[in-house]
Amino acid sequence: MMQLEEHKGPLDFELPADLEARQPPEARGLRRDQVRLLVSHLEDDTVEHRQFVELPDVLQPGDLLVANDSATVAAALTAKRLDGSSLTLHISTRLTGELWVVEPRRVSVSAGERLILSGGAIATLLAPYEDSQRLWLASFSTDVRKLMRTAGRPIAYPYVHGQWPLEMYQTVYAGASGSAEMPSAGRAFSPDVLERLAHRGIGFMTLTLHTGVASLEAHERPYAEEFWVPEATAAAVRSARAEGRRVIAVGTTVVRALESAVEMGSGGVVACHAWAELMITPERRVSVVDSLLTGFHEPKATHLAMLEAIAGRRHLETAYAAALAGRYLWHEFGDLHLILSKA
Fold first, then answer.
1. Which residue range forms the structural domain that includes residue 173?
2. Is there a single domain that holds both residue 177 and residue 44?
3. What phi-psi label fits residue 300: left (phi over 0), alpha (psi between -120 and 50 degrees) or beta?
4. The model scores a pTM over 0.70
C-alpha cells in the first residue's frame, strides 16, 4: 500500500528496491517497446495497464507527440587526485569553450583542485555551481567531447547492475549528441511503433534539449539546460493547439523546453535556441502540454512537481498507487506512465 505524505511539496512514497529496473529490457528478454505502460486518464482518474507497443492504439488520430532527440554521451570519466586516489567525474553541461558543469561523485572537493584524466588531461575545479552542494564549475585542458568519446562511459547509478554500452542509453530517433543522461521517456519507441503512429495519423515531432546530470541525492531544483525548438516543431504545436488537438510531451525535458519557448514568444511556441531555466510547479502550471509520457520518478523528486502541475495531486497519487500495486519498474530502464487528457 502506498504511504503518502500529507504535507505540501513533491509527492513522497516508499519505493521498494525490487521495483528498480536493474537492467535494460533487452537483458530481461524483452524488446524495447515491450515495457509496460500505465495509462492514467485525467478526465476521471481511471488507469489502464498496457504495453508500450500498444501506444498507437491508445492515442487518437490528430494527436501530436513531441520528443527530445538529444543523443546521450559517455559522460562518466575516471579521474585521479593528486594524492593518487581515484574518483568518478560526471560531465554535465557545457557552458562556454571548455568551461563545464561537472559532478565529482560522492567525494568532498575544493576550489582549485586539479584532477588528472585520461591521456594526462587536467580538469580544474573552480567553484561550486550556483547554489548546488554537488555540482562544480570546471575548466579543462583539452576537448571534453573528444575525451568522452575516447575514455568515457555512460553514467550509471548503483541500482543498475553491470556496465551497458552507450547504445543501450540511446533512443532510436537520437540526433545531436549532448545529453549527460538519456532522455529516457522516449527509449521504448521502436521503428515499428513510430511507423504505426504515422499510419494512424498521429504526429511525431522533435526538439533538442541536452540534459544534465540528475538530481537524485539532493532533490535540487532543476538548473539551466540548453535547448533548440525548430520552426517545424513550433508550427506543429501551434497548429495542434489552435485546432484543439492534444499535445503530448515525451518526457519532462520536452515540457520544460516547450514552456520556455512559449515565454519567449507572444501567443504560442516559437522556434528558438535558448537555455531552459524554468521550474514548473503546481502554482505555475503549464500552457502548452495537454498530456505527458514519462517514466516513474523517485520519491520527492522535483519532476513530480511538474507532473502535479499537469495532472494535479489527487490524480498523481492515484496513478502512483496503481503503479506500486501493479509492480511497475522505475528508472531509465523501467516502465512508462502516460498521463492522458481527454481527446
1. 17-72+163-340
2. yes
3. left
4. yes
